[in-house]
Design goal:
Shape: globular
Number of helices: 14
Distance between the termini: 20 Å
Oligomer: single chain
Largest sheet: none
Mean pLDDT: 91
Length: about 280
């Protein structure tokens, strides 16, 4: 708890005294006009900004729930790893640049990694014990991932592939069905607006002429977001790690799959470094 408390205080100070970045102002504007969807992203980030701004004024209000979600995400990561060496664990976690930026910046990635970490905890529990409660929780978190950022679909895909045998459980089918019901308001909004977000991501983004520097930018960006000092060590260790059980195997699939998928996409379009955020876990 002392690590998390200090981390929260630091992020509250950063959130209070740092002016909004242009992306944050973009989502703050959306939060003033709540909808079930927006041109470039689903509505989770604007909704969190709206709730925080309803509690406190200024920059801290815009970032309040993001800061709390950031701390909770680090706590969930602690629960996932179950580290024996706390100083080493938190030193590694806090060496990751993405966690520093994500600690207070009001953007969709924070909502995505928050719900991704919660999803992993729920998935491990569901893998150990088949239950309707676990399936419904996963369904809710699946919808939350979808409301956060569409990149959550890649995260879910690579988690499912090594766990495909879960389809033999009757409870498993509640996950996609209930998640789809939760996600229907967004899909109806897309339909009524002529699918602007889908067209933007699937068509408009790819209209930019490809440049070979996109590939180099992607590779360099990964070493940046995973931490300019520790990225090489962390990435090599993760690739070399042999999973102890099916859950760790799922994490390995997710880690390798996400990095390789967006590396492939960098040969088609510009890919932003933070798109691999869920590979962090």
């Amino acid at each position: 708890w002392p690590y998390l408390l200090v981390w929260t205080i630091i992020n509250i100070l950063q959130a209070s005294f740092t002016e909004l970045f242009h992306d944050e102002a973009h989502y703050w504007m959306f939060s003033q006009h709540l909808q079930w969807g927006y041109w470039d992203h689903p509505p989770a980030a604007p909704f969190l900004i709206f709730l925080g701004s309803s509690i406190l004024p200024g920059e801290l209000g815009v970032r309040l729930l993001i800061v709390l979600a950031s701390t909770t995400t680090v706590f969930f990561l602690y629960r996932l790893v179950r580290p024996k060496n706390l100083p080493l664990f938190f030193s590694l976690v806090f060496s990751v640049l993405l966690i520093h930026i994500g600690g207070f910046m009001a953007a969709p990635d924070i909502a995505l990694v928050f719900f991704a970490s919660a999803f992993l905890l729920a998935l491990r529990s569901y893998m150990e014990e088949d239950s309707w409660q676990g399936a419904l929780l996963l369904a809710f978190l699946t919808a939350c991932l979808a409301y956060s950022k569409y990149h959550g679909a890649i995260f879910l895909l690579f988690l499912f592939l090594p766990n495909w045998r879960l389809i033999k459980r009757p409870t498993f089918w509640a996950i996609p069905i209930v998640a789809l019901i939760f996600f229907l308001p967004h899909l109806l909004w897309q339909y009524n607006m002529d699918f602007p977000t889908f067209r933007y991501h699937l068509i408009d983004r790819g209209a930019e002429p490809h440049e070979w520097r996109f590939v180099g930018d992607y590779i360099g960006g990964q070493f940046l977001v995973f931490g300019p000092l520790m990225a090489f060590v962390i990435l090599i260790a993760a690739f070399r790690r042999k999973p102890d059980d099916l859950f760790e195997k799922s994490l390995k699939w997710c880690f390798v799959g996400i990095l390789v998928f967006f590396f492939y996409r960098s040969f088609q379009e510009r890919t932003e470094a933070n798109w691999t955020a869920t590979a962090l876990f």
